[in-house]
Structures are given as structure tokens and as C-alpha cells.
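> call design_seq(struct)
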């Protein structure tokens, strides 16, 4: 089975790492599990060895989907969906949540897959995913870290990063040029914002980071198309210095700013 370079396939071949990834999910009886990018089934076999209730695998490669179908033929708990997880209808996969999500993600699609999971965060119990290390560092970065940016904020609006561990490039075939990192995450026990203001917060974050090298004053004005005076008033009420850049603001700062901008953005805030 030749890995597809265009699909960013790097197969995990180290059993000890596979064991550690699945162990991190703490699988138990009755769990509903979703695996993204099972590939050759190294993680899949270990997942299926647990007394889980339901196991859904999303695999984009027809060759690998067929191989997995033969491997798990007769296991009534398993369902293999051939297609792109980013574009797929996820209603059935999350219908019997909460779901534990596991996977060794293609390096070229990790960020996009994570954004899709953020949309489903309320139906997720736990996430154990492997990313390119540089992407993982951006995901878990905090205010003040060099890697902190829009991806950090968008992810941490929904998930708390509990722990992480590095996986060297030598654990894959073919060997990638960079290391990987596994992130273990859970949805926040209490949402960081009410459901009614989600669109408002996301729009504000997107605008704030739309021009990372510009001050908030310039970035917000350009992206939100709101008059400078209104932005100044909202920032004053939120105690935000518009002379700073977005990377200096905490997630709570951005949520507070979004709420103060709500009237001018004309998005309902519950």
C-alpha cells in the first residue's frame, strides 16, 4: 500500500505510540468513538479491542476504505465512511453522542479538520488527535507565546488542552520532514460564551486577526466596516487598548470586546 503524497499520508508504524494514543482516550464500555483518517488501521485495531458501543471511521482514500471494510467485516459496532471528513454530513456520527474522537490527521488538513470539530463541540466528550508539531503548538499556545494566533483562539473557545506529547518523525512511513504532536482535549465544562453570541465572537476574532501586523484599531475597522468612533467607544467599555495587536489579547478580552461591539455588528447576543 503506497502512501499518497497528495493526501498527506504518513502512516504511523510505531506500536508503542499507537498504544499511547488509544490509552489517552480512556475508552470504556458503551463509548461512541469516531476515528478520522484510520489509514492502515493501526489505531483502529486497538480501538476495536475495547468494549466500545459504536465505532465510526472516516477514510478519504478508497483503497484504504476497502481494506478497512474487509478487516472489520462482521464487527457490527463498526461503520466505515468513505469520504472527506471536512465535507461529510456528520449528523449520524454524532447522533448518539457524546463522542470520543481519535486520529492521526494528515498534516495538510489538520487545521481544517479541527475547525469542523469545533462546530460539533457540544457532542464531543474527548479528543485525542495527532497534528504536525508546528500546528499543534499554535493550537495550544497561550497569550504571549510566539505561536499564539487565530487558530489558538478559535480552538480554545471550544476546547481545553489537557495534555500533549511529541512524536518523532521516525515513527512514520514515509518519514515526514517534521515531528508530530498528540493533543488531548476536552470541551469546556461550561461554555465560554452563550450560544446566542457565538457568531458575534467568531466574527470579532476573525476581524481582530485579519491583519496580524496591524493594530486592533486598523484591523477591526477594516474587517468589520464600522466607524472608528464606534470601535473606540466599544473598546473603551471593554477596557481594550486599540493600539495593541490581536496577539496581545486573551480569549476573555476578545469575548468581552465582541459583546461591546454587538449593537454595531447587529448580531444578537443572548
Amino acid at each position: 500500500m503506497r502512501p499518497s503524497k497528495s493526501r498527506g499520508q504518513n502512516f504511523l508504524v510505531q506500536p508503542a505510540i499507537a498504544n499511547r494514543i488509544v490509552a489517552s482516550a480512556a475508552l470504556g464500555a458503551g463509548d461512541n468513538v469516531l476515528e478520522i483518517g484510520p489509514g492502515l488501521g493501526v489505531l483502529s485495531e486497538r480501538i476495536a479491542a475495547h468494549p466500545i458501543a459504536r465505532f465510526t471511521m472516516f477514510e478519504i482514500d478508497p483503497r484504504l476504505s476497502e481494506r478497512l471494510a474487509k478487516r472489520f467485516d462482521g464487527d457490527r459496532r463498526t461503520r466505515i465512511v468513505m469520504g472527506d471528513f471536512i465535507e461529510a454530513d456528520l449528523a449520524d456520527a454524532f447522533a448518539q453522542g457524546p463522542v470520543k474522537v481519535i486520529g492521526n490527521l494528515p498534516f495538510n488538513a489538520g487545521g481544517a479538520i479541527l475547525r469542523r470539530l469545533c462546530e460539533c463541540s457540544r457532542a464531543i466528550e474527548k479528543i485525542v488527535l495527532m497534528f504536525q508539531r508546528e500546528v499543534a503548538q499554535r493550537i495550544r499556545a497561550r497569550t504571549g507565546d510566539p505561536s499564539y494566533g487565530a487558530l489558538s483562539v478559535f480552538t480554545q473557545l471550544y476546547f481545553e488542552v489537557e495534555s500533549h506529547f511529541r512524536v518523532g518523525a521516525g515513527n512514520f512511513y514515509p518519514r515526514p520532514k517534521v515531528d508530530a504532536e498528540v493533543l488531548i482535549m476536552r470541551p469546556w465544562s461550561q461554555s465560554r460564551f452563550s450560544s446566542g453570541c457565538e457568531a458575534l465572537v467568531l466574527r470579532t476574532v476573525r476581524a481582530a486577526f485579519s491583519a496580524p501586523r496591524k493594530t486592533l484599531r486598523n484591523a477591526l475597522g477594516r474587517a468589520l466596516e464600522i466607524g472608528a468612533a464606534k470601535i473606540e467607544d466599544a473598546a473603551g467599555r471593554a477596557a481594550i487598548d486599540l493600539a495593541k495587536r490581536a496577539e496581545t489579547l486573551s480569549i476573555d478580552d476578545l469575548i468581552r470586546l465582541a459583546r461591546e461591539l454587538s449593537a454595531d455588528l447587529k448580531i444578537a447576543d443572548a
